[in-house]
Amino acid sequence: MQLIKSGPADGHDTTSSMPAGGWHTRQNLRGSLLAAPPSHHVSSRVLGAAYPFLTESGDPFTGAYIGENVLARSPFSFDPWDAYAAEHIRSHSCVILGVKGTGKSMLAKSWSTRLIRVGRKVAVPNDPNGEWVRVAEYVGGRSIRIGPGLTAKINLLDVGDPIPGWALETWRHHVLQTRRATMRTVIGLVDQSRELDPEEHTALDDALEQLGSGRNVTVPHLYQVLTVMAASGSDNAVPAKRLAHVLRRIVQGDLSGMFDGPSTVTFDTAAPMMVVDTSALKKASTLTQALARLATTTWIRQATTGSNRTERVVVHEEAAIELMNMVHGGEGLTEQVAGEKVARHDGVSNWYLLHRIADLKALGDDGSAVRTQALGLLADCETRVTYAQHAAEIPDTAMQLGWNDTQADRVKKLKKGEGLWQVGGRTALVKNICTPGEEAVFRTDAHGGVRA
Question: How far is 49 from 28, CA to CA, in rounded Å?
C-alpha cells in the first residue's frame, strides 16, 4: 500500500491523515464562527398582536384537500358543511376574490370536484366561457347549452316538482309567490329597471291567480291572460295593457325563442355536476344574457328543493354581473340576500366569484340600500378567499374584510395560486395544488385557450 502525502495549500508537508476539523490555513473558513444576535425581549401579548396568524390554532379543518397551508407547512382541507357542523362558521356560502390570472377559477374547479368525491354535488347556472363543460365531463356530470338558435328552452315560470308533505294550498301559495317574484324581476329588466306601481302589482297577481299552480305555465300564457284583461274594461285593464306590452318582447319580439315555452331540458338531480353552458350568448344583447342568468338560476333553485334537496355547491361565475342584473331587475338583489339567509336550510353553498370588492360597491351609491345589501351579502359569507389584488384595491378590501396590517401585507405578496383564507375567526395562507391531470382539464376552455 502506498502512502499518499497530503497537506494544506501553503506547501507544509505532512504524512498524517486529515484532521477532524480540516486543515487550518488562512481564509479557509475552518475557524470557529460565533453568531451573537442582539437579544430581544417580547411578551406573549405583544407577539400575538404582531404575528397573529403565522401558526394554526385549533383543530384542523376537514373535507376536500385544497393544498398546502404555506405558513403552517401543513395540508389544508375544507368542506363548508363540516366547518358548519364544527361551529367554525355560521353559513355555508363563500366569496372568492381575485383579479384575472391569479388562480381564482382554478381553485373553484379543483375544490368543487374534490367535494364531489366526498359526497357533495355541484351546479353552475351560468358558464359564460364554456370552461366548466370539460369539468362536468371529468366528474361524470352533465351540461346543457342554451342560446339563440338552439333548441334548448328554460321556462322562466318553471317551479319544479311539488314538495312532498306540503298541503295543496301551501304549494299553491309557494308557486304564486315564486312566479310573482320572478316576473317582477323580468319586467324590471325588460322595462329598464322600472318598478311596478300598485295597480300593476294587482293586475299581475290577478293574472297569476287565474293561471293556477300548474307546472307548464309559461310567459306566453301570462301574456295571453294580460291581453284579455286589457280588453275587458275592468279596473285592471290599463295596468294589464302596460304589462302585456312589456312581455310581448319575450313572446313575439326581439327576446323570443328562448324563454317563451315549457322547459325542453331537465335538471338531473342525480348528476354529480350540472352545468348550463351560456357561451353561445356572448354576442347576444345584454338583456338576453340577463334573462338567461335569471332563468337558469331560478330553474336550478326550484329543481333542487324538496325531495331533491342535498348538499350542493352553486358556483356563481362573474357574480358581479349577476348581481348587477338583479339590481336592474328591481327586487332581485333583495330576494338574493333573503335567499342567502335560508341557503343553509336549503342545503346550498353559494360561491360568489368576484374580481374585487369594488365590484360590489359599484352596484349602488355610498349609503344606498343597494350597496348596503351587496356588502351585506358579503358579510353573510363567513368563508372568504382572497387571491392577489391590485395594490390600489388593498386598503378598501382590508377594511371590508377586516384585515390587519400583516394580512394586508401578505395579500400584496401573494403568488399565483395562493389565497388568504378567512374562515370565521381563523385565517390561513393556502397554496392550491393540482395534479397535472387536473390542470389539463381545469386550464382548458371550450376553445382551447389557457385560463386561470
Answer: 44
**Per-residue pLDDT averaged across 119-138, rounded?**
94
- pTM for the model: 0.80
CB within 8 A of 211, min separation 6: which ones?
A: 217, 221, 222, 225
Q: Where are the domains of the chain?
A: 54-149+309-452
Distances (CA, A) of 258 to 142, 252, 280, 286, 316: 20, 11, 12, 14, 21
Neighbours of 19 (CB within 10 A): 10
**Does the structure show a pLDDT above 60 at 375?**
yes
Q: Does domain 54-149+309-452 have CATH number 1.10.10.10?
A: no
Distance of alpha carbon 371 from alpha carbon 362, whole angstroms: 8
Concatenated DSSP letters for 268-279?
-TTSSEEEEE-G
Work out the angle between the directed axes of helices 319-328 and 369-380 (0-180°, nearest 10): 140
Distance CA 313, CA 221 (A): 33
Pairing state between β 121-127 and 142-145: unpaired
The 10 Å Cβ neighbour count of residue 99 is: 15
SS3 assignment, position 142 = strand
